[in-house]
Amino acid sequence: xxxxxxxxxxxxxxxxxxxxxxxxxxxxxxxxxxxxxxxxxxxxxxxxxxxxxxxxxxxxxxxxxxxxxxxxxxxxxxxxxxxxxxxxxxxxxxxxxxxxxxxxxxxxxxxxxxxxxxxxxxxxxxxxxxxxxxxxxxxxxxxxxxxxxxxxxxxxxxxxxxxxxxxxxxxxxxxxxxxxxxxxxxxxxxxxxxxxxxxxxxxxxxxxxxxxxxxxxxxxxxxxxxxxxxxxxxxxxxxxxxxxxxxxxxxxxxxxxxxxxxxxxxxxxxxxxxxxxxxxxxxxxxxxxxxxxxxxxxxxxxxxxxxxxxxxxxxxxxxxxxxxxxxxxxxxxxxxxxxxxxxxxxxxxxxxxxxxxxxxxxxxxxxxxxxxxxxxxxxxxxxxxxxxxxxxxxxxxxxxxxxxxxxxxxxxxxxxxxxxxxxxxxx
Length: 427
Hints:
By secondary structure, this protein is an alpha+beta fold. Helix content is 46%, strand content 19%. A hairpin with a 6-residue loop joins strand 9 and strand 10 (386-392).
């Protein structure tokens, strides 16, 4: 659709029904989304002029179950959240992607070169290049586009801003060059491929799936190439609880070694049993040979393996509890998962900085404020990131106020699960 036509339609409320599907139908949801998108279109016009343009979205994700289980081909419970990344994008008739993200310089990616470059690791350019490469490997001809991007997913928030970016770029290319022929699951796999091979980060697949699918999904990665996807109908408001993500305020720099150590130590235990990942090891064999596995690896490695087996099994219980409307039972498993992460996975602080434990501090404050109600646990990778709390809805605003007072201004974000994943909004 022409930019001026889309702007007029959006301003007149002609897209409100679609906005309600994506963002919810609360008193401010549609209006806030409309204004945000109108601002984005104005920025697109300033940067790239008129022409055909569409509006796109990719949400952040929350890990509801399965902490560090996906990279061992285990199961997870993931949900898309209301914080999202949006883009206005249109084909530009060239072989170059020009992308202007709010707060950053414009980047330019020549699609004539789709090979990984170690000097480009860790950059947005590498992600775009990797996504384009994965799409061409599937038999599509990619082409250049112009885009402006705005994000409400804070970097380092544990809500997977990088995965949201990957899904957003994937959705744009899927719509503009693939006729929307790629599924949400394929876009997630494309995002992971790019992050692993072009960005240089050995991530699992949960982040991309959570951002791509929408709603809540029970994901089983026993066969990573063909993950089992089980969507679960879920309305957070019906539970009487609010979902809060709390930024612990820790320094996220220099944590790659800590994340890698979890993966490597789990794989060391798997290797003792002649397997590549822990999912291929039977829990009974692990316990029957525990002493020897401990001697062959380390105390921390077998503790982390123990966490995997327990948290992987816990995901099935969590999925059943949500599916059957037993939310209090779900909260019990969240608490158990949090204890396991803290005592067995050991990802609530970095061993390189034992005096700095912002995640553990945030958990302690949240537990105190909850007073035995709800549940709280480390969220995502851990070490210096975020925690997740399920807070009685009638106490959520007061909880946020006290968290912000104790941890830092705007540390607590009150979110909802949204039903729409990565998608074209309109255009």
